[in-house]
Amino acid sequence: MEPIIQHPWNIDEQEAINLQRQLAQQVKKVDQLTDVSFVAGVDVAYHAESDLLVAGVVILDATSLQVVESVVIQDTVEFPYIPGLFSFRELPPLVRAFKELKTTPQLVVCDGQGIAHPRRFGLASHLGILFDIPTIGCGKTRLLGDYEEPEQERGAYSPLIDQGEIIGGVLRTHPNIKPIFVSIGHGISLPTACAWITKLSPKYRLPETTRQADQLVNKVSAELNSSR
Fold this sequence. Notes:
deoxyribonuclease V activity, magnesium ion binding
């Protein structure tokens, strides 16, 4: 897979913020999914004592949720740690990983935020715009916004609201389990995003896309740590 949009990554903080604001105007908040056969999960793990990172993409069969392909990239951190600009640290190696995929996903779930972001342009939105592919942000924690607890049944969600705008859904993937934070990345509506995350979470709080990507990058990262 090759990105549709190319832009420089070696930029300063203000240039990155300006780019986010510009690209955020292109985010589509309506469903643009075709028949979904394959769903991708992405994650990045950092080395505790160096500037190394491991970026991974896993492709799951959308029906069985079995892993059909995975790609791991080892790289070094190029962009500083700045809240709200994580995509500039994590996307360059993830883009490299997507270029190596043999299986094309129709939907990508990111362990992070979509439009539930101060500039409405978190990592999921950034990735979705780059490849013009439907993406969902699925975070374990809230970045910003207020909400009321959703109902206890599986699939229930309440709106996540910031400055009067609905920026995501607080989703209960299983009864009596802490909710997770779902937001539009690109090319998908919030109800559809929540329905997909529920479908992708048959056994655990987090979707299988996130769990499998997390296990992949942490395994490789641990192997790197033990070999150093």
